[in-house]
Amino acid sequence: MKSEFDLSGEHILVTGGTRGIGQAVVLALARAGARVTASYVTGGEAVSALDKRLANLGADYQLVRADAAKAADVSALVERAHERFGGLAGVVNNAGVVSHRTIEDLEPEEWHRVLDVNLTGMYLTVQAALKRLEPGASIVNVTSAVAFRGMAGRVHYTAAKSGVTGLTRSLCKELGPRGIRVNGIAPGLVETDQMSGVPQAARDRYSGMIALGRIADPGEIAGPVLFLLSDASRYVTGATLHVDGGI
């Protein structure tokens, strides 16, 4: 009998799937037996390294270049996914960008860049994926603990991630009658590229804000994402799961 957590044979689309949280989710999905289509914007070592790791796992996967903020790219991504693996059992909207700008220094171009990738990209992906989603499909939108706390120098990022929470709540109402679940996940501080340049003093200060006393490994975010994709969460929709170590 298939376990509620078993994703064998399920086809999952992950945007921004070659770095950080996205990479951890893709690898966890592969280990859980899922077929994975993962997108990326910039090629290079991260893409080739993930390609090798997935191949070594014997995974069924494809890595596709697509900009989540461009409708044509997203449409082509969904069609590539469908052509290779058929209907979608799940979508993980993970593609995102971040920058640090105070409101005085925040140019309109940077405001739009951050909102276009972090928020508009989710709208484009869900809209394009709708016709390919199978009954009982699950959508997981990656937001951030910052959306619930605020942060100086991140008004554009916070606004985008707060929008993800509203998008999630409304989509669950629209898509629930079709049997499609929509949830969010709000990570706190995670050991990704964004943390690589943070001085040790700042890292220590951040760790002191966290109940568990440490910054998360990306794999610790992937587990809750898999829960929201699985049948174990089949009556969970419209929720945002906080995975922040107790900030």
UniProtKB/TrEMBL annotation:
Listed SUPFAM superfamilies: NAD(P)-binding Rossmann-fold domains
Q: Name one Pfam family in it.
A: adh_short_C2
Q: Mind telling me which InterPro entries this protein's record contains?
A: KR_dom, NAD(P)-bd_dom_sf, Sc_DH/Rdtase_CS, SDR_fam
The protein's superkingdom reads: Bacteria
Q: Which residues form the Ketoreductase domain?
A: 10-188
Family label: Belongs to the short-chain dehydrogenases/reductases (SDR) family.
Query: Cross-referenced PANTHER family, in alphabetical order?
Result: SHORT-CHAIN DEHYDROGENASES/REDUCTASES FAMILY MEMBER
Q: What is this protein called?
A: SDR family oxidoreductase
Where does this protein come from, organism-wise?
Actinomadura graeca
